[in-house]
Batch of 2 targets.
Target 1
Amino acid sequence: MKKILGVFLAVLVVFTSCTNNEGPEMPVGEAPVMPPEVSMAPDMSMFNDQGSEGNREIQVGNWAFAAINVGVYSAILYQRLIVPVTAFKATLGADAMYNEGEGLWVWEKAFEISGKSSYSIRLTAEVVEEDVFWMGYISGEGISDFVWFTGESSINGQEGGWKLYEGPESSSVWLSNRWEIDREAESGFTKFTVEKEGEHKGSSIRYVVNTDEYFDRMVTIVNAAEENTIYVDWRSEEKNGRVKSFAHFGGELFHCWDGSLQNVDCD
């Protein structure tokens, strides 16, 4: 009887050992929460000239002054850094797969940019305790797995930051940012700071969504070259808003526009 029991235990040990060597276990839980779209691509389309009658009539006005200044940063994000920004947006809603060998969550997606080319992105996330570290590898014509942006965030997706690089020809950081989001209240902010050498280095734009305020969108622009700060507030639906700049207006008062983007007195 003892001999039979000994053989049984030996077989059990061998079986257990083989089972444990089959490979690493799958991660417990789900993929980390993706940073929100606003963290990298805030909606500043309010200041695009969409060809409305009101826009065509404006030559110089309060809205136009705000639009020109917001446009500097919009151009960086949506023109010069359109590839990494579009790449990140393409991953939103995509399914994540866990790569056991690398210990990474991976999102992969092909996308196109009108007038440019076709690309693909491999976005990876490494979870380290309560932090997530992101890498955006982009491939396309003439480039292969170029890391166009990196980031870090809390595992619950409530705060984090990005670094967006200039491009394959120069791997220096163009913009860095910090962001926070209250998903339940649909409120938060993202602040971009220019890291690229030149006259705009150190300048920043802070975009805020606050659904509890009358003006539910707010932008603060700091122009490091001119030591000037510009405050822009507006209502996302009605399109009316206000702007303040001591350097431009010569005072600390706000200057307003209405829903058709025409100058009006502030209440």
Target 2
Amino acid sequence: MKRYDLIIIGGGPAGLTASLYGRRAGLNLAILEKAVVGGQMRLTSEIENWPGVDRISGEQLSEKMKAQALSYGVEIIEAEVKELAAEDQASGAPRIIKTSGQDYQAKSVIVASGAYHKTIDCLGAKDFVGRGISFCALCDAGFFKNEPVAVVGGGNAALEQAMHLAKVASNVTVIHRRDKFRADKVAQDRLAKQSNIFVILNSEVRAIRGSEEVEKIDIYNLKTKLTSTLPVNGVFLFVGQAPYVNFLPDAVKIAPGGWIETDRRLNTSLPGVFAAGDVRHTSVRQIITAAADGGLAALEAYKYLESHF
């Protein structure tokens, strides 16, 4: 069994940044990533709010972060974590990380496994991600200036993002499968005052169509049973997010929605285990906040190791 000072679960911006700070502190560490390094960041076609860079694709930024980590001697292992365990969960004893391949032992762990955007089950929902389908209006609104877009969802996030899109897009159509929104009344009242936002209730998107990018969507009315086509260049999905936490033990405190609870130093309820990025209970999930979390978590892990081992 390979042993490390620190194991980082997840190779997104939080995990990659944590690895840099950990290596600079002299820690023997590794990143365990089940898929492609970069996480959700790779799905963003263009990033315009990364400090010091005018414009870069999510894939390019991911590769730059990966290359930098490798240059620091970070070991990146392709493995899916199945279980985080220890003989004594309450103590700070080294943790055992069980994967789809071999198992690893670590004196400290940073959980940076991220989250995934829930999507809709329809034709084209997977094909056009990054080519018209987006999960972040704050990130991608600028790419749809003076173009028609659709927002799918009925909660606060959907309505708030629709309001943001309305400042840029020619018009915004909000589609919700129920007869009324789940969002707060304040958000609904604000939406109703916006002249270029249109609402379609009791309906769901059945197909997202286009050639290279999104061009139109098919909308099915659940009451009339009729299908209509709406020309749009972008589809923003706000039907919820969920974290990757199925490998965690019961000793890790979980907030509503499945997010990991942490204190301000990013400690979880399990000694020696920290959480960073989108997987934790936080109000903002952006690349830059994930990276900041990763740096802080690594510094706190170093302090933990200094005082316990």
